[in-house]
Amino acid sequence: MLSFTEENYLKALLHLTMEFEDKVEAGTNELAFYLGVKPATATDMLKKLKEKKLIQYEKYGKISLSETGRKKAIEILRKHRLWETFLYEKLEFTWDEVHEVAEQLEHIHSPKLVDKLDKFLGYPEVDPHGDSIPNAKGELKQSFKKTLSEVETGTSCKMVAVKDNTAAFLQYVSKLNLRIDTTIQVLSRQDYDGSMELLISGSKIMVSQKFAENILIV
Amino acid sequence: MLSFTEENYLKALLHLTMEFEDKVEAGTNELAFYLGVKPATATDMLKKLKEKKLIQYEKYGKISLSETGRKKAIEILRKHRLWETFLYEKLEFTWDEVHEVAEQLEHIHSPKLVDKLDKFLGYPEVDPHGDSIPNAKGELKQSFKKTLSEVETGTSCKMVAVKDNTAAFLQYVSKLNLRIDTTIQVLSRQDYDGSMELLISGSKIMVSQKFAENILIV
DNA sequence: CTAATTATTTAGATTAACCTAACAATTTTA
DNA sequence: TAAAATTGTTAGGTTAATCTAAATAATTAG
Ligand SMILES: [Mn+2]
Ligand SMILES: [Mn+2]
Ligand SMILES: [Mn+2]
Ligand SMILES: [Mn+2]
């Protein structure tokens, strides 16, 4: 049985090796920074995870998940996203509140619980942030979506997910009346700083490039 | 914030100081045995819990919960029983499966989660084992119920809870068609070993004294 | 292609939660 | 009430997960 901490390392590695289409490895510092620990700490854990055959790793080399490591990580991601969906759909949590609690709930060990929860929620495909939920077989629909910042001026698109999961960002998105499935029309763009003028359900708003880079669209 | 382990010690102390009406203290060995650790380990933790003002304790003396310690312990008990109820009522778990998972879920930290869960479940008063669920104010209806072994021969009673929460016992109870609210008629009793002949919804069964001592009735 | 910079590992500590073995206090029993 | 039994504590370790400081490898830049 994996410890809470080991699970977090695997989850972090899954995240870091899926950041963009061709990224399949991570570095020690990158991992340590992501987890909020010192590189020396990460090195110790990497040795242990290698020992347990959960990762591929050689001293001074890059890190990637093994097949079993990836399986484990996806299980945790599945639990995380199912719990977020539960909190959002059944317990009236807002989308900026669910992540923190799911960080704890994802470590509950009980295969029966996960599958019953999935059933109870009606086998949802995406979580409250628009992220795809791995199914019971451990299959994850991974699609690398375009961001709002890449949309051509004058065209329309639909928001399908968010990239940033911090409460601050999510609350701001909500305040702008943006949510999953909202149609966005790009009216204009400032060459100077990349900020964009948008039309959302009748009202015009202005957003920064940084903001637009965290809205995923289709 | 209390650790997982500290929470388990407090919960154990709450249990041990509520075993019967006049029991308000526990001993080091008793506590250690209940938690499955060595007495030396318990002594260490007792010092820490005393330091944090969660218990009353003097070297070589008896242990009892402080007001804050009791509050904390009841919060955990509340979570435990609400989660058991959730698993049983919403996720189709059987009553012998819920405890193990609730042992993990009870340590999730989120005041909002507990209260939303309570609301979602319709503010249940008892868990699947008939145990009273503390309310949001931390009030616990504690009633010391009679056991089936104390019922007079020839009279009837109603099962309201079970004392033993092990899967083996609960499965056996189910197999005998006994559940919360079942009416039990005591037909006869063996002087020799205290075993009892019961009438349950039309069929006669024989149970041991040990068994009868773990069925709570009214 | 060396020197500077960056990335990573090693060495040596710390803390929480556990253990065993030995010792000390308390309670029971004869 | 003294010996025996029980209960509880202390001393000294271990392991997992963390840290800081120092050393080393790899990469980048001039
Ligand atoms: Mn999340
Ligand atoms: Mn999410
Ligand atoms: Mn239980
Ligand atoms: Mn229960």
UniProtKB/TrEMBL annotation, chains A, B:
What keyword terms does UniProt attach to this protein?
Answer: DNA-binding, Transcription, Transcription regulation
What's the short name of a Pfam family annotated to this entry?
Answer: FeoA
Stretches assigned to the HTH dtxR-type domain: 1-66
Residue ranges annotated as transmembrane are none
Q: What Gene3D superfamilies does the entry give?
A: 2.30.30.90, Iron dependent repressor, metal binding and dimerisation domain, Winged helix-like DNA-binding domain superfamily/Winged helix DNA-binding domain
Question: Which stretches are annotated as coiled coil?
Answer: none
Q: Which PANTHER family match?
A: IRON (METAL) DEPENDENT REPRESSOR, DTXR FAMILY, IRON-DEPENDENT TRANSCRIPTIONAL REGULATOR
Function recorded in the entry: In the presence of manganese, represses expression of mntH and mntS. Up-regulates expression of mntP.
Q: What is this protein called?
A: Transcriptional regulator MntR
